[in-house]
Write the structure tokens for this entry.
Amino acid sequence: MFKLFSKHIAVNMFLSFSSILFVLLLLELGMMYIGYNKTYLENRSGQYQSVFNYKSTDSIRAYGLFQLHNLKTPEYDYARQCNSLGFSDEEWISDSSKILIQTYGDSFTEGDGAPFDSSYPAILRNLLGAKFAVQNYGICGNDPGFYVTQFGKVGSKFQPSAIVLCYGTGDFMNDFFSRGGLERFTESGWQTRKGPWWEVIYGISYTSRLFFHAFGIHYNQFFMTKADINQQLKLLQPKWNEMFDEIALLAAKQNTKVLLFKKPERSEIVLHEYQYNMAFFDSYLNANPIFKHVDLMPFYRDSAGLVSIKTTDPYYWQKDGHHNSKGYTVMARGVHSALKNKFPVLNE
């Protein structure tokens, strides 16, 4: 009798456990199908990508030489042909008869969301005219740490008259946050910070994310509490300035002019407020005259009239958040205006 009772309990436990697993499996498949709790990169590339525990031997962080790749999301698909140095631009030829401007930045500089001829550097090239040449060093996912190596190892060899560097609060709070400052670079390349060991569970299971999120643990917050994030951001402030110290030294050696422009995200334009107060960097820039600095927020809002969700709609992809061709035209005009105002000698 006892054996029968025990067997009955075991069968019930097995059935209960199997039912739970079946429900979890259905839940996992359902969330996978509808994309619930997907990260931005999963929506874009179809696979989970960690921002931690990454190593590369390429300290310049360029594409492959002459590589053909696509800037692609569910909303758009634009091809890019790289040059012999691995950047999404035409082949660069030294021409002493032209004033050379180099642009450094992330996806908004490479031109993610628009055809090749509609990136902001390509449009800037047309705005500047025939006596100027423009080289586009933009790479999706870049942050200013890579401007140091790209300019130091590649761009400086062309002896540009000016370099234009794009940055935003997203660079500081996301890419730079996960990679750190110049300490990321080693003799063999570069690497990101180490992440939590259990991220692999988060990465492979949508169901697990429900539990992680219930405890306030999120991918977009680097699996940290807000208090820990704020503390880490404060620790990173001098490292951020240190990167620009290095850029200043490199530019001064060649008498190269430097324009920094702060690009707001769409949500920041609408709210008329930046996500993070970078007053620490403003103080640094004011103390370093080699840098000319412009905030594009007033240009977007006042000159282009982008002041609300409705007025920004024609200039951004709705789901992805990158500019379309019209948006990059606004961006190029803002940079063009800044170059003319900050460096009138270039227009003589």
In short: The two ends are 103 Å apart (CA to CA). Residues 40-347 form a domain with the Rossmann fold fold (CATH 3.40.50.1110).
